[in-house]
Amino acid sequence: MIKIKNIVITALLALSTTTVASASVLDSLRLDARLGYALGGTVPTHMGNEIRGINKFIPGFNFIVAAEGSYPLSDRWAIHSGLRYELGSMDVDSRVKNYDIEVVRGDESLKGIFNGNVRIKTTQRRITLPIQAQFYLDEHWSLRAGIFMGWLASRKFWGWAYDGYLREGTPVGPKIEMGTEPGDRGDFDFDKNMRHMQWGIDVGADWRFSRRWGAFVELTYGLSGLFKSNFHSVQTLRPLYGSLGITYSIHLKKRHHDKKTD
Amino acid sequence: MGLDSMRHITPMALLATLVMTVLNTSCFGDEPDYCEADIETATLHVSNPAEFFFQPTDSLQTVFSTDSVITFAVRSDANVTSLAPMFTLSPGASIEPANGSSHDFSQGAVHYTVTSQDGKWQRHYRVNVVPTMITVADTLRFDFEHYELETATQRYYMWHNVLPDGSLGNDWATANAGYRISMGSAQPMDYPTTPLLNGYDGAGVCLTTCDTGPFGRMANKRLAAGNMFLGTFDIRIAMSDHLHATRFGIPFTSRPETFTGYYTFEPGATVQDFNGNPIAGRTDSASVYAVFYRNHDSRGNEVALYGDNVLSSDLLVAVAKMEYVAPTTQWTPWNVKFEYREEIDEQLLANRGYSLAIVFSSSASGGDFIGAIGSRLCVDKVRLICSHEE
Predict the structure, then answer these.
(1) Which of B15, B22, B185 is closest, CB to CB, to A12?
(2) Rounded to two decimals, what is the model's pTM?
(3) Dihedral angle sign, alpha carbons of residues A37, A31, A11, A6
(4) Domain containing A233: what range?
(5) Which of A61, A174, A202, B67 has the fewest CB atoms below 10 angstroms from its CB?
(6) Per-residue confidence (pLDDT) for residue A232, from 0 to 100
(7) What is the pLDDT of residues B347-363, one digit of tens each?
(8) Domain boundary residue, one of B83, B99, B132
(9) Does B155 lie in the same domain as B121?
(10) Are residues B124 and B141 located together in one domain of the fold?
(11) Chain B closest CA to A129's CA: distance in Å?
(12) Residue at B6 is within a domain
């Protein structure tokens, strides 16, 4: 999590240093093709005290491809929407204490309090529809904020509890050690418990550095949770993606401002 | 910085603030208090250990997470009216009465309560220090009449043996607790080790090789042989090191000569290998044996035998093994003599320096997860005939 945080903040600071004040006029629909690298996956709603440290965080090969458009409402305001295809994966290995866990396989489950290490791997292919208000700071810069609806085209969530021990049922239940190797550890697989539909908040910033080309930074945070509401095997996790990428813009109709600067 | 540029930086700062707020909630909180409340070991320090204990190692007891009774067996003439046991507890836990406080153990068990660091969990323990007569039995009888559902979970059966004084002991162990890890939904009579209401004589015990279900397949531990043995089952390592979870043997102070009993054995239809593939032409075999061994190594360390060395250890003194457990649906007697590999040291025998294990299993290779699901070994009226030299 620390890594994500540093990267996103660094990116935002880098982008925010070059703000220039200038008026911009927008009077026509503008379409963007976007390609970006996404960092993220899932985060707990609050990093509970139970998570004592991150041993390893490996962001996967994640990307975003999108076709999005802005429809101007005034000189400074527009409505922004489109379709995005996101591939997100994550591999995180954390150290936990007093961690509520349920290992499920078929009709059988084993639940209790785990102390040790938990490895979680996720892969999600998501199609999202953002609806955002866009505010133009100037001709180069705009900010966006709104909501998104997402649909998971494919989803995987699996991992294992290892090098530790489970207190079966309660903290005073039988103590069962879990080893490192498959068969000795507690494997879990929660694909089927994931929601298909997600929704959440979506904020972003765009920087146009030429007439066609620009860059964007985006952060989407799922409010709907990753799992179905009747699923309690792991604590509530929410999808969080930070992404960074480039945009290529097409104006359906040239703006006055563009004519002047061209 | 001019007002104008301020106006434009502010929204960006707001966005950054929002991002940081979202991410900051993901930072680590304070370490939670421990919630466990276990006695992990119990130690009894006395000024005259050689006169008090049978073996120096008897002063330290390792306490399993499933134990709530701790018993020190001491010499029959030991004075137990003022003893101060010391306990190691799970991290952060506290104990009442105080660790190391003196108590009179001559009136029976002393009760201790352990409370977790977070104050939310408690465990109650009974600690016994029992002056133990060295009995030299002629015949030990195991009739499997005393069984009950395990107290905490009520999910599986456990058995009690009848001690020489007529009270019930806890010397029989099974791996039923381990089966519960993989098959939490199983009913008591679905477990590998179950009571048999109509045995050869009264109740008997039935051992069945069972499928370990989806967890078993995932872990490639696809079957659990029904077993029953004199010793203890350590649930802690049932998953990570199953062969060492079966700790065979209890201290034994007579010289065993003959091992007898009655059995039925019906092998399951198909023997499967480690990966669950059928092995053509093979019939499952059961295990019926008793071993007698030195329970300390040459350096004086306490030793138990486990699933991987119970028939091969250098510490074995005598073995009585049914070489072939012939399939039969009729109650069939067995009578096997102990074959001694070395002479008994009478002094060591009197000091509880030997242990005895009786072992039954419905699939002899069950420890390697090879066997036939459904193999069923029932036993009853087990006798251990002993002798002693004057």
Answers:
(1) B15
(2) 0.80
(3) negative
(4) 2-261
(5) A61
(6) 64
(7) 999 999 999 999 999 99
(8) B132
(9) no
(10) no
(11) 20
(12) no
pLDDT, position A258: 45
- From chain A, the residues in CB contact with B120 under 8 A are 171
Nearest to B15 among A50, A51, A205 (CB): A205
Q: How far apart are CA A143 and CA A141, in angstroms?
A: 7
Who has greater pLDDT, B6 or B56?
Answer: B56
Domain of residue B59 covers 31-132
Together in a domain, B217 and B227: yes
Question: What gap in Å lies between CA A142 and CA A32, rounded to an integer?
Answer: 14
pLDDT in tens, B108-163: 999 999 999 999 999 999 999 999 888 777 899 999 999 999 988 899 999 999 98
Number of domains observed in the structure of chain A: 1
Q: Angle, nearest 10°, between helix axes A2-16 and B3-24?
A: 170
Question: Other CB atoms closer than 10 Å to residue B378's CB: what's the count?
Answer: 24
Range of lowest pLDDT (A99-113, B18-32, B302-316, B324-338): B18-32
Q: Locate B29 and state its tokens.
A: 């909180």
- Is the pLDDT assigned to residue A162 strictly greater than 50? yes
Q: How many domains does chain B have?
A: 2
Query: In 3-state terms, what secondary structure has residue B321?
Result: strand
CATH of the domain at B236: 2.60.120.890
Residues of A in contact with B123 (CB under 8 A): 172
User: Which tokens is B141 given?
Assistant: 């009888």
Q: What is the CATH number of the domain that holds B37?
A: 2.60.40.2340
- pLDDT averaged over chain B? 91
d(CA B127, CA B108): 9
* % pLDDT > 70, chain A: 79
Size of interface A-B (CB pairs under 8 A): 162
* Same domain for B190 and B91: no
Is pLDDT of B7 > 60?
no
Report the b/e string of A127-156 with b at 16+ CB within 10 A: ebbbebebbbbebbbbbbbbebebebeebe
Tell me if B231 is assigned to some domain: yes
My answer on whether B354 and B233 are in the same domain is: yes
Residue B122, domain member (yes or no):
yes
Q: Are strands A213-222 and B227-233 parallel, antiparallel or unpaired?
A: unpaired
Domain boundary among B98, B116, B132: B132
User: Three-state DSSP class for B188?
Assistant: helix
